[in-house]
Amino acid sequence: MKLVTIIGARPQFIKAATVSRAIAAFDDITEVIVHTGQHYDANMSDIFFDELSIPRPDHHLGIGGGSHGAMTGRQIEAIETVLMAEKPDFVLVYGDTNSTLAGALAAVKLHIPLAHVEAGLRSFNRKMPEEINRILTDHAADLLFAPTETAVRNLKSEGLPAERQRLVGDVMYDAALFYRERAKEPKWFEGLSVQKGNYILATIHRAESTNDPACLTSILQGLAQADAPVILPMHPRTHARIREFDLEVPEAIHVVPPTGYLEMIWLEMHCAAIATDSGGVQKEAYFHGRPCITLREQTEWVELIESGWNTLVGADTGKIAAALSSLTRPEEGKPLYGTGNAAELIVKLLYEDAQ
Ligand code: UD1
Ligand code: UDP
């Protein structure tokens, strides 16, 4: 069996690392990796291939930056060329980025079976580019690998056939379990004079948080009011917006460059709490037992809210500050994201489907 995996953005490298490892256990599956180039800085891309032992991409398309239409359109064209040459039995796409949608559209128009990992997630906010990407990808896909029961319900409610759906758990949980033993302290941590266990770890990168200067300022002001210092590994989009809007980052916030995954896990494991607008980081807070506030109005990961591990605070300075000063750790409940074998299940199901 031949699989083409299409990835391009940071969280996709982490998700694909677990699945690629499961694929490697099969002698008769060949994986061809296509990197669209959506993320291209060394600390947004290469570092993950090096640290997580992801096979080097067989095709690097070098298409990052630009508007949504330009990026997605150029990616579709280039992926189509690769797929026509590779003739795979399945195309595998992850999550909800422009690279996901480009891969899905290229595959479905060539009548190549398409599998979507992280199917069925919805924020019900159609202004988010990710929401459009995931809805269209789910509707194009032949196999829908859903991480949660909520995701399965969402797929059903959109009329997607039950025989396409597979509840497998979350590959990011597999990654958290596998890599937590390998977590490493960032070299710069000691120099910050911040105590282990007594800092807030923050990430901000969503278009909805960063495109409006008032919104970004409000988030930064809210974080700065925390009792503990804040460590903010800054995404290049956020960096660009702060410079463009000429904003001052408050002194209580220690800005550091984006980290590799192993350092990020270490920071998550040793922080007091997490404040984020990232999908992946919300779940990692729960995986590593840290309370979390989400700097958005909605989340796709609703079970974290229901179980008390996460609180939605939007971009509201007052709500952010209040939530950071009243964090509690809920009791352990039933596991929310499977048992840590999602990647193995995905590969087994793909293999069976292709027979
Ligand atoms: C993308 C995804 C988002 C995902 C995020 C993960 C879409 C629509 N968005 O958002 O769902 O959560 O990745 O991190 O696909 N840039 C660099 N260097 C890089 C990458 C980006 O400088 O290596 C800058 C560029 O100015 C670029 C901007 O960041 O224009 C935005 O990058 P883009 O990939 O379009 O969106 P993200 O915000 O990264
Ligand atoms: N991450 C990382 N370094 C960072 C910030 C995030 O390795 O500086 C990891 C994080 O641990 C998680 C993933 O990147 O596994 C989340 O990606 P991101 O927040 O960019 O995207 P999202 O999950 O929101 O789509």
Structural commentary:
- By secondary structure, this protein is an alpha/beta fold.
- Strands 3-2-1-4-5-6-7 form a seven-stranded parallel sheet, with helices on both faces. A six-stranded parallel sheet has the order 10-9-8-11-12-13, with helices on both faces.
- It has helices at residues 10-24, 46-51, 68-86, 98-109, 129-140, 149-157, 171-179, 207-210, 213-224, 236-245, 261-270, 279-287, 302-306, 317-324, 342-354; strands spanning 2-7, 30-35, 59-60, 90-94, 114-117, 143-146, 165-167, 200-203, 230-233, 253-256, 273-276, 292-294, 310-312.
- It has two domains: 2-170 and 338-354, Rossmann fold, CATH 3.40.50.2000; 190-325, 3-Layer(aba) Sandwich (Rossmann fold), CATH 3.40.50.
- The longest helix has 19 residues, at 68-86.
- Helices cover 43% and strands 15% of the residues.
- The structure holds uridine-diphosphate-N-acetylglucosamine and uridine-5'-diphosphate.
- Uridine-5'-diphosphate binds at residues 10-11, 14, 203, 205, 233, 258-261, 264, 278-281, 284.
Distance between the termini: 9 Å
Instruction: Count the beta strands.
Output: 13
Count the domains. Answer: 2
Query: Helix-strand pattern, N to C?
Result: EHEHEHEHEHEHEHEHHEHEHEHEHEHH
Fold topology:
Layout: E1 2-7, H1 10-24, E2 30-35, H2 46-51, E3 59-60, H3 68-86, E4 90-94, H4 98-109, E5 114-117, H5 129-140, E6 143-146, H6 149-157, E7 165-167, H7 171-179, E8 200-203, H8 207-210, H9 213-224, E9 230-233, H10 236-245, E10 253-256, H11 261-270, E11 273-276, H12 279-287, E12 292-294, H13 302-306, E13 310-312, H14 317-324, H15 342-354
Parallel strand pairs: 1-2, 1-4, 2-3, 4-5, 5-6, 6-7, 8-9, 8-11, 9-10, 11-12, 12-13
Bound molecules: uridine-diphosphate-N-acetylglucosamine and uridine-5'-diphosphate.
